[in-house]
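[audit] Reproducing an earlier prediction to check determinism. Same input, same settings, fresh worker. If the tokens differ from the archived copy the diff job will pick it up downstream; this log only records the rerun itself.
[audit] input (226 residues):
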Amino acid sequence: MRFISSLDQHPESRKGRFPEHLWPCGSDPKDVDEGWIAVEFTSSVGLRLECAPTKLQYPMPDLECVVDGKPMLLELGEIIESHLAEGVAYSLKQTDQKMEALSSGNTVAASSIQTAGFRSFPANASLLRILVKKLSKSYETRGLPSHLLLFYDLERPLGPFDYLLQRPDVFARLIADSVFQRVWIFDLQSAIVMGYLEVAHDGALRTVFDWRFHVDLFAPIRAMNF
């Protein structure tokens, strides 16, 4: 189960805010947590969820939701820096190599192997990374409408998102070639839908963002360039 970043995300708090027929249940805490994220999202975007989301197994997307009597599939992905998970995996791999070198008596090689390290992806890079990863993956949908829900929680939302518009043809093609009709960007802590991306009928990329989250960190620097 993911780390609960606010009291509003505690199950008892959520049960006080949502009717019982929407409460996700299951033996796996991760599955229950994903269900709650879908409940929070559909409520925020104004979709009338009729029952608790149903957990699906890959190659299906993560969840099936029934909205106004019609099924809709959701694939979830958290936008977060991945240096911790990747650092642990890297350290384990390097430790195995160091132990092999020591067991063979090669102390010189063992001393040269570093067992600590990480790769860091800042907020925007994390969004871009998971966006490309999810859109490039194959899913089965049984012909049901499917949406990709990317959410911030432990990572805080940080703009600008202009880089998504610099190559609109690339993102339009990624979405068009995927099973997803729309890509949502959601802030779980504030329960605010930050925006979405989709492909218009003419094949162009259509983007809608809540500009309260658009923080242009380079504006003060550019303002100094007279």
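[audit] rerun output stored. Observation attached for the diff report: The longest helix spans residues 83-103.
[audit] end
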